Amino acid sequence: MEVVTFGCRLNAVESEAIRRAAGESGHRDTIVFNTCAVTQEAVRQARQAIRRAARERPGARIVVTGCAAQVETQSFRDMPEVGAVMGNADKARPQAWLDLARDGQARVNDVFALRETAHHFVAGAVDSIEGQTRAFVEVQNGCDHRCTFCIIPFGRGNSRSAPAGDVVAQIRRLCANGYREAVLTGVDITSWGHDLPGAPSLGRLVKQILRHVPELERLRISSIDCIEADADLMDALATEPRVMPHLHLSLQAGDDMILKRMKRRHSRRDAIAFCADVRKARPDVVFGADFIAGFPTESDEMFARTLDLAEECGLTHLHVFPFSPRPGTPAARMPQTPRALVKARAQALRAKGEALLAAHLERRIGARCAVLVERGGLGRAEDFTPVAMPGAAPGSIVDVTVTGHDGTKLQCGEFPVRRP
Ligand code: SF4
């Protein structure tokens, strides 16, 4: 039984639950594709991988699940290589895999009917993440917003939160399994709690985790919407050394008219003010951000404002997405930017990102940092900066002094292993 994962950290966590549920339901010679639908390219790659798998393992049963299976169900059902298509609502449910083993049937349900998330927590189905030394923890799923370019809500439904008690229990399990860092993950994690009694905030959850899991050394917040960051979250960032000084922001663009046409909730000024406020409260903070290049109607002047926003906010890690029209989204019906221009702008943004990262790496020379070692001779400092760690034990935390960089990651001198 094999699970092939595409896309985000949420899919990585859910693939663990799939591996467990399908494996325990007797699915032997089965390949599960846990797909992503965020861009047309992601869907194309899934199809390509499915065809290749069918050629290389002709007897294997192919099951397709994930967001692409949810939003483009029939097109996957029409593929001769595909044995079954399972919706996002069922993929982590053991009963769904038992049903599939028994009668060969899988369902694709209406994700907007979902009211709870992360039920695999309760089952304790995820106490390790294959190949990961940082534990992704699904605290929220789905999204109530409807940004005009985004297909995600149609793949994952409306926002749902995992109860704080389940999150705390999950992180305790992961710590007991040797994980040192937990990464709070979801689709729109700043909306965590909105659907829970008393509507607690994400900041409240962070403080509860820190209080109830003293053995957790590092807590990282994955991507957030800066306009929805609550006071408790800001306070935890400012006062809790176990909260890592790194935030990845879903900014998308630097021009207010484009942000309006994207139906984003923040303005250019909000983004700049947020970064300045966080930096005042936590001076060692480092910011990453998502940007879309070539959104419909984006002029050269508008794009120039995206480029300079990266400077204004003092960003370091840029994730650049060339605009990809997703069928069924409002942005797909807007006047499109020519593909060549989309590609050129994405290239310009990536080049900006590389320059900002190199400047950040240069500033880190001589600094001390505690690196969580991952696989492949690489680790992550507290501020998420990559560090070359040849020969260090994955999962260990090592104190190092930065001696240089190669433009993409830090290099450090001799390093004693702090704890094996
Ligand atoms: S906030 Fe917007 S971009 Fe993010 S998942 Fe929701 S709809 Fe998509």
Describe the structure.
There is one protein chain. The longest helix is centred in the last third of the chain and has 26 residues, at 339-364. This protein has 420 residues and is an alpha/beta fold. It is globular. The chain folds into three domains: 2-109, Rossmann fold, CATH 3.40.50.12160; 119-363, pyruvate-formate lyase- activating enzyme, CATH 3.80.30.20; 368-419, OB fold (Dihydrolipoamide Acetyltransferase, E2P). Strand 8 (181-185), helix 9 and strand 9 (218-221) form a beta-alpha-beta unit. It is built from 14 helices and 18 strands. The structure holds iron/sulfur cluster. Iron/sulfur cluster is lined by residues 143, 145-147, 150, 152-153, 187-188, 250.
Short description:
It is built from 14 helices and 18 strands. With 420 residues, the chain is an alpha/beta fold. The radius of gyration is 21 Å and the shape is globular.
> Which fold name fills CATH's third level, the topology of the largest domain?
pyruvate-formate lyase- activating enzyme
Q: Give the number of domains.
A: 3
Q: Which compounds are bound in this model?
A: iron/sulfur cluster
Structural class: alpha/beta
Question: Number of helix segments?
Answer: 14
Distance between the termini: 32 Å
Q: Helical content, roughly?
A: 25-40%
Largest sheet: 5 strands, antiparallel
Overall geometric form: globular
Poorly predicted residue ranges? none
| Biggest sheet strand line-up | 16-15-14-17-18
